[in-house]
Design brief:
Helices cover about 55% and strands about 5% of the residues. By secondary structure, the chain is α+β, with helices and mostly antiparallel strands. Strands 2-1-3-4 form a four-stranded mixed β-sheet, sandwiched between helices. Helix 1 (about 10-20) links the parallel strand 1 (about 1-5) and strand 2 (about 25-30). The two termini are about 30 Å apart.
């Protein structure tokens, strides 16, 4: 398999966690400005040009959640990301949507706004994104009370997304001390070897973080 991705990208990390959890072999196709050949290959596979994209023989799979589901289905290992039980699987997918829509999306809105020319910025949209993150942190803090992982399924697809999304959300809009359950969940995710590896591999790219990467994590 080939994964078109970038080590510093949160959605790429979501799929790297799944690959690393089970030691699934794959070739990392690093997308970079310098490597036009890989970029052209990627654009031909997926003109939308959002990454990661997984290629498995003649199949091209896009969308990070679907890549994790695909790995679980076609290349299963000891860690299962979507439980067999359909009811529990629904809860995993619901939490996966929570982290994607209400943590990552507002986080990216704030970052992307910061790199626009001043005249094109959207202060009202950024304020809404910050409110969304505050609301998401507050809801998640209650949800995580007494919980190790996002659902009762054990470490799952939902945690694969939570790890990079909470990681960068805290850099962008700090998770206050009053959200102790969210902070300890983020720390647990950072200590998970699969995510720790993804974070380490992305360290050289920290100067790329538009808001300035904090001196921690
Ligand atoms: N819905 C996509 C989102 C992927 C995404 O936004 N990827 C970012 C990198 S973290 C990207 O492709 N950015 C490049 C661009 O926007 O052109 C998924 O779940 O995989």
């Amino acid at each position: 398999m080939k994964l078109y991705a970038h080590p510093f990208s949160s959605y790429s990390q979501k799929t790297l966690i799944a690959l690393y959890e089970n030691g699934t072999p794959f070739e990392f196709k690093l997308l970079s400005r310098e490597d036009e050949k890989t970029g052209a290959e990627f654009a031909a596979l997926w003109p939308i040009k959002r990454f990661p994209v997984l290629v498995d023989q003649d199949r091209t799979i896009f969308e990070a959640s679907i890549i994790v589901e695909y790995l679980d289905l076609h290349h299963p290992g000891p860690v299962r990301f979507v439980p067999e039980d359909a009811r529990l699987a629904l809860e995993v997918r619901m939490m996966d949507r929570f982290f994607d829509n209400y943590v990552s999306t507002p986080q990216q809105k704030i970052v992307f706004d910061s790199i626009r020319p001043a005249a094109d910025r959207d202060p009202a949209g950024v304020a809404d994104a910050r409110t969304m993150l505050e609301t998401a942190y507050a809801w998640l803090d209650q949800r995580m009370d007494g919980r190790m992982w996002a659902t009762d399924a054990g470490f799952s697809l939902a945690d694969c997304g939570a790890a990079p999304f909470l990681f960068y959300a805290d850099w962008t809009h700090p998770i206050e001390e009053r959200f102790a359950n969210v902070r300890s969940y983020r720390q647990r995710l950072l200590e998970r070897p699969s995510f720790a590896r993804a974070v380490d591999e992305a360290r050289p790219y920290r100067p790329l973080f538009p808001l300035g990467a904090p001196d921690r994590d």
